[in-house]
Amino acid sequence: MHVEVQLAKTWMQRTYKHPLFRQLSAISDDSHKPHAHSTMAQMSITEDAIKAALTERLKATHVEVQDMSGGCGQSFTALIVSPEFAGKNSLKRHRLVNGALKDEISSIHAWSAKCMTPEEWNNEKAATGGHEGPPLDGTEGGRVEGVKE
């Protein structure tokens, strides 16, 4: 029994000295203080807020955002046209967008984006006779509906 008690004491001493434990303790000790991420999570994300953030942070020349969740602000799709995408492949474009919307994306459930340069967007408009808008795959009329049997 004495050995078990000593092992438990040793484990507790090592645990409480570990840097991760100290970080967790500091977070829990500050739980009464407002954090930037909790403020973002509490505020409602809107189409206009996402559009403004993309326009400002990516110097986007055209942004279309659609809330596919029926207005609850949990599922968005977007068409983003920015010169910042020039010379970047699809993965790098999406990483750029996700980085620009880091706080917003962490507060929502689903996000998809179509990223184009101004030249690509103009070419697509010319080819289709209009513009395609944000991707609406998996939706019914641009809205995510419940699972149907």
UniProtKB/TrEMBL annotation:
<protein>
    <submittedName>
        <fullName>Bola-like protein</fullName>
    </submittedName>
</protein>
<dbReference type="Pfam" id="PF01722">
    <property type="entry name" value="BolA"/>
</dbReference>
<feature type="region of interest" description="Disordered">
    <location>
        <begin position="120"/>
        <end position="149"/>
    </location>
</feature>
<dbReference type="GO" id="GO:0051604">
    <property type="term" value="P:protein maturation"/>
</dbReference>
<feature type="compositionally biased region" description="Basic and acidic residues">
    <location>
        <begin position="140"/>
        <end position="149"/>
    </location>
</feature>
<dbReference type="GO" id="GO:0005634">
    <property type="term" value="C:nucleus"/>
</dbReference>
<dbReference type="GO" id="GO:0051537">
    <property type="term" value="F:2 iron, 2 sulfur cluster binding"/>
</dbReference>
<comment type="similarity">
    <text>Belongs to the BolA/IbaG family.</text>
</comment>
<dbReference type="GO" id="GO:0006879">
    <property type="term" value="P:intracellular iron ion homeostasis"/>
</dbReference>
<dbReference type="InterPro" id="IPR045115">
    <property type="entry name" value="BOL2"/>
</dbReference>
<dbReference type="InterPro" id="IPR036065">
    <property type="entry name" value="BolA-like_sf"/>
</dbReference>
<dbReference type="GO" id="GO:0005829">
    <property type="term" value="C:cytosol"/>
</dbReference>
<dbReference type="InterPro" id="IPR002634">
    <property type="entry name" value="BolA"/>
</dbReference>
